[in-house]
Amino acid sequence: MNTEDKENQSFEPHESTVKTPLKQRATSNLFLAEIQPAAACHLMTPPKPNEISAADPWTPTANLKMLISAASPEIRNREQEKKLLHSRNETLEDHLSGDEYEKSQPSRKEKSLGLLCHKFLAHYPHYPNSSKNSEICLDEVAEELNVERRRIYDIMNVLESLHMVNRVAKNRYAWHGCHNLKRTLQVLKKVAEENKYMQQMQLIKKMEGIEEPEENNQRTELMVKHDIPSNHMDISFVELPGMEFRGASVNSRKDKSLRVMSQKFVMLFLVSTPQVVSLEVAAKILIGEDNVENLDKSKFKTKIRRLYDIANVLGSLDLIKKVHIKEEKGRKPAFEWTGPSVFSDVQDAPSVLSPTTIVPAHPVEQKSSKEHCSKNLFPTKSKQGFTRHPSLIKLTKSIQSDHRKIRSAPSSPIKKSTSNIPSSFPNKMAQLAAICRQQLDEQSREPNKTTLELASSPLARTLALQPKSCLPSHVEVLPLIHSSASPPTLPHNHSNASCTVYVHPSQMQIASAYHPSFIVQPVACPNVIGMKHPAETGSKAAPVKMFTEGDGINSGESEAHAKEESIGAAKKQEGSKNDCASKKFLKKCKLVHEYCPVKKCKHEEQKLQDMLLGESVKNSKTQSCTALHLDQEVLTLSAEEQNQFKLKNRSREHESKQRKQRNLLGDDGAFPAEDPPVYKAWFPSSYLIPLTNCTQSGNETTVSNKGKAKMSLAEPKSHNSLTAGGIPVTSECTAINFPVFHITPLNLLLPPSSVPTIPVVNNTVLPSVIQANPIQTPSSSVLNFTLQHLGLMPATMQMSAHPGLADVCQSTLIHQGAECVGSVPSSVGLKQGKTLQNALLERNHELSGKQVLKVPFPQTTVSITCSVSKEVNETVFLPPSQPAIACSCSSAPEPNVVGSSHGTSSELQREFDASTEDEF
DNA sequence: ACATCCCGCCATGAA
DNA sequence: TTCATGGCGGGATGT
C-alpha cells in the first residue's frame, strides 16, 4: 500500500455516521481533538526561539500544528512534503552556520515519543473501517515520520499492549484503532483485580510511608512479598483473543517487553483510586514482579525510563496525563488516568440488556472474570486471551515455531489472500478456517452457500447478561477485529445453513441412521456445560458504538463457531478416510462412556485422552484429520500440539491451584461441592474462547472437504473448540453434519454422560429451563428426534418444537416446580417472528438478571443454548442422556421435567409471555 | 540536581 | 550471516 492509499484509508470514516468523503477529514482524525489537550498537558513546549522550522510542515511541531488544524491538505501529500523537508534541510545546511543549523534541528522534545506517537496516530482513524485493510508498514511509517524504526517499535509495542494494533507479519502491523480498547481495558482491569494490583500498590505506598525505619521497611517488604499472590508474577501479556502475538523473537522476551510493562502500567491505573499512579510505585511494582528483592538502582532507573516511554505513548492516546503528587519532600512524578472508565464487573452494567448498549464491555468482563481460570492454564500458543504462565513460555515458543511452520506468519509477508483480514486471523484455527472458506468459495461458488454471520451479538449479549457465571466468559463480543473477515453487511442466509450436531458417541449410530446424509464424525468434547444463550438478536441492532461498530461483534461466538465449523470442515474433509479412525475413536469413546462412572471419569478421561492422542498421531500420519476435543483440548495432529496438550494437562494442577488462590471457585458457590473433579474439569473450559475462532468460522457453516485437514489442527485448546457456542463440551461428542436443508442451523451439543455439568450462575443454581430454539420444522425434527429418539434427554423431559411455526420455534422445558429462568424468543428472521421476537426480546430484557442459560438439574446440568436471533448460529445444548445423568449424579434425584410446548405462533407467544412473566 | 527520555548499541532468534 | 525486534542504559536535554 502506498502512502497515498494509506492516508486515504486513514481518513476513511469508520463510523457509519460518517459517510461522505468530505467529512472524512473533519471527523477522521479523532485523535486530533486529543492532540491539543495532550499537548497542553506536557508535550507542548513553549515557542522556541528557533521557530524557523515552524513554517516547515514537516518538523514535528509544525506537523502537530498542522494536524491540529485538521484541515491541512498537506497531510495528504506526505511525500511531497518530505521532499520539501529534505530540500529545506539541505538548504539550511548549506546556508546556516553549524550552530545555526543545529538550532534548526528539532529539539529533543520535538522528537519525543509522545509527539511521534501523535503523528503516528494521525495517520490512522480512531475506528478504522473494518472492511478496509489498515495495515501499518513499519518501514513506511518510520520513513514518513522520519524516525528510526526503533522508535516505531516502541510505539507499536504500547499500542499492541492495548490491542490497537497487532503484528501480522514481518514489518507489518494491523491497525485496529480503538475498537478493542475498551475491551482490552476491561480485561486488563480484571486481570489487575485478580492479581491484587491494588493491594500491591497500597503495600508499596505503605512501605514508602515507613521507609525511614529500616526494620519496618524490611518487614513491609516481606509483607508485600508474602501478600502478593505468587501468581501475580505470572502475569504475562494479556492477550485478547484474536490479537495474539505473532512476533518472531518477541515471545522470548515477552515477559519483559514493553508491551507487558505497558499493560501492567495501565492495570495500575485501572484498579487504583484515584486513578493516579506515581512512577515510583509503578516501577516498584513492575520490578517487584520480576524480583521484589533486587530492587537495585539501575534496574529501577531502567524501569522508570521505560515507564516514561510508555507514558508518552499512553499520553498521546489521551489515556493518561502527567501530574505530580505532592509530598512533604517535594513532588513525585505521576500519571493520572484520563481514559475511559472501565468496569470490570459484568453486573455493573445492567444496560447490557439493551440491544443498543455497549454489550461488548460485559462479555469482556465476563471473560475476564474467569480469565484467571484460563490464565496460565493453557499454553495459549498466544492465541488465547490469557496470560501465560512463565512455565509455559517454552512451550509457547515451540508452539509459536510450529505456528510459523504452519503458516508463514509473522516473519513472512502476509499472504494476499489473508491480507484483508489481518487481524482477523489471530490464530491458526481462524486462519485455517479462512483458508478453508476461501477454498470453498473458489471451488464451489454456490450462490446459496451458507454464510453465517457472526452470530455475535446474540450470544455475546447473552453472555453479557450472565452475571458472573460459569458461562464461557471468553465468549465475548469482539469488536471489530474480525470485521474485515466478515463484514457486517454479510447477508444472513440461513436457509442453506448446514448444521452440526454434536452427539455423544453412544448416540451416533442412531443419529446417522436418522438421515443417511448425516455425516457423523467423532469429536471429543470437553466438558459441556455452559450454555449460551443468545438472548437477543440483533446482531445488527446492537452495536455499541465503541465496540461493535462495523465490526463483527461477537467474535467470541463467531470464533467458537469458526472452530466448530472448522472442525466440521476438517471432518468433512477427512471424509471417508477418517471413518476408520472415527470408528475407532467412537469405540473408545463408548467404552469410556459406558464404563466410566462419574468418579472414574477423570481418570478415564485422561486415559481416553491418551488414547485419543495416540489416535490423533495416527491420523496425522495419514493426513487425515479427526478433530478430537478432549477436555478442553482439541487434539491436534502435530506432535507439537500433542505435547502442548500434555503440558497443559500437567499444568492443570497448578492451574487449579491458582484458581483456588484467586477465589475463582467462589464464583461457583452453587456448584455442588461433591464433585470437585468435575468442576475442575469443566470450569476452566468455559473460559476464554478466542474470539478469533468464533469470528472466523462463525461466518460459515459450509465446509468443503478440501484442505481442511489443517482445520483439525485447530487450537489445541479445547475450550476454543467446542465453542460453537462458546460452550465447552464435556468429553467426547460426535459431530453430525446435517445437510444444508435445515433452514436454521442447529447445533446440538450433547454432553457425554461421563461428566456431570452443573451450571452455576452467580453462585446460584438456577431454575431449570430448557429452551430450544429457534427450531424450524426441519430443525424441530432433528431436535425431537435427537431428544426423544436418541435418548439424549431424560425420559421425563419433553421438548417440542413448533411445527406450526415455520419461522419461529421455541421449546421450553421447565423443570417442574422450578422457576423459569429465561425464555428466549426465537426468530429466524421471518415476518411472523418479528413481532414475537420483539416481544420476547423485550421480555428478555426485563429478565436481564435472570437470563441464565444454564439449566441445572439437581446434580446435573442440562444446558441448552438457545439462540434467539436471526443469527444463524444456533447452538443447543441438549441434556445428557438418562444414563449419563445417572452416571454423573448418582445421588441426585432424577430431574423431573415437564415439557412445555407451543403449538402456534400466537400460542407460542402467549405461552412465552406467560412463562416469562409468571415463571421468571 | 533532578526529571525526562532520546538514541542507538547490541542481544536474540528466525530465516 | 542477515534481518527484524526490542531490551537496555548512557547520557543529553529540559525544568
Short characterization:
The model is unreliable at 1-84, 211-234, 247-251 and 346-920 (pLDDT under 50). With 920 residues, this protein is of the alpha+beta class.
How is the secondary structure organized here?
Layout lengths: L2 H8 L10 H8 L1 H14 L16 H10 L8 H18 L2 H7 L8 H10 L12 E3 H8 L3 H13 L3 E5 L2 E4 L5 H14 L2 H13 L4 H14 L30 H14 L4 E3 H13 L5 H20 L3 E7 L4 E7 L23 H14 L18 H14 L9 H4 L8 H16 L12 H10 L33 E5 L1 H10 L4 E10 L16 H4 L6 H41 L2 H25 L5 E3 L2 E3 L3 H23 L14 H7 L8 H8 L10 H4 L5 H4 L7 E10 L8 E3 L19 E4 L4 H13 L21 E5 L15 H16 L7 E4 L2 E4 L11 E3 L4 H7 L8 E4 L4 H15 L1
The structure holds a DNA duplex (15 and 15 nucleotides).
CA-atom Rg in angstroms: 27 Å
In terms of structural class, how would the helical and strand content be classed?
Answer: alpha+beta
Largest sheet: 5 strands, mixed
Q: How would you describe the shape?
A: globular
Describe this structure in words.
This protein is an alpha+beta fold. The chain has 33 helices and 18 strands. The strands form six sheets. A five-stranded mixed beta sheet has the order 8-11-7-12-17. A three-stranded antiparallel beta sheet has the order 1-3-2. It has a three-stranded antiparallel beta sheet with strand order 4-6-5. It starts with a helix and ends with a helix. Residues 1-84, 211-234, 247-251 and 346-920 have low confidence and may be disordered. It binds a DNA duplex (15 and 15 nucleotides) through residues 45, 107-109, 111-113, 138, 148-151, 153-154, 157, 170-171, 247-253, 256-258, 279, 298, 301-302, 304-306, 308-309, 312, 333, 401, 404, 410-412.
